[in-house]
Amino acid sequence: MERRPKKIAAVALAAAAGCGVEPNPREPVDAFAGARVLASSRFINPEAVIDGEVSRFNAAFGDDGTVNSPVSVEVETPATVSATALRVYAESDGAEYAHRRSMSGFTLDADADGDGTYESRVFERVIPIDYRMVPDNAAPPTGWRLDLTVTFAAVRARRWRFTAYQGVGTARDFEGIRVHELVLYATE
Predict the structure, then answer these.
(1) What is the DSSP letter of 134?
(2) pLDDT tens-digit profile of 80-94?
(3) The model's pTM
(4) CA dihedral in degrees (71, 77, 156, 73; nearest 10)?
(5) Is residue 62 classed as helix, strand or coil in its secondary structure?
(6) Beta strands 53-54 and 120-126: pairing type?
(7) Which residues contact 127 (CB under 8 A, 6 or more apart)?
């Protein structure tokens, strides 16, 4: 089981080595640590995407296999943060199973003014259903894992909505999108 990073690696390693490095408020941390799920649209087990575990057996699943159908999760961080990147850990069933459980894209929205409406589209990313073809995918090139960090201009908010879009529809069981973890990098 892999744990998601809480701080930049150098700071974490220095602290672990007993170097007495204090956390720098300008270094990115995972803003979803300690966050809570406010709502979910068709995600089964949505808490899995912010629980700090990247494990094959700990995932949120979309409950529909219709092509381009959206599934979303709304998350509230413990405080307002200034976010600059989102890291997405996901997994499909690969080419052998027609890339079922894959995404064709995802978006991140923010409720920047705190009124309960996600008025700020932070980014929209379209990706191939064959994760081997995704530029900047940091996962091993098996075709069924995704480890992708999307950077963006700083956005301040406390409430965030992640939406993923179903990549394929195969009219079989186990079609819904599989997302293991989301890491929202923020400096505050």
Answers:
(1) S
(2) 999 999 999 999 888
(3) 0.83
(4) 0
(5) strand
(6) unpaired
(7) 103, 104, 105, 106, 134, 146, 148
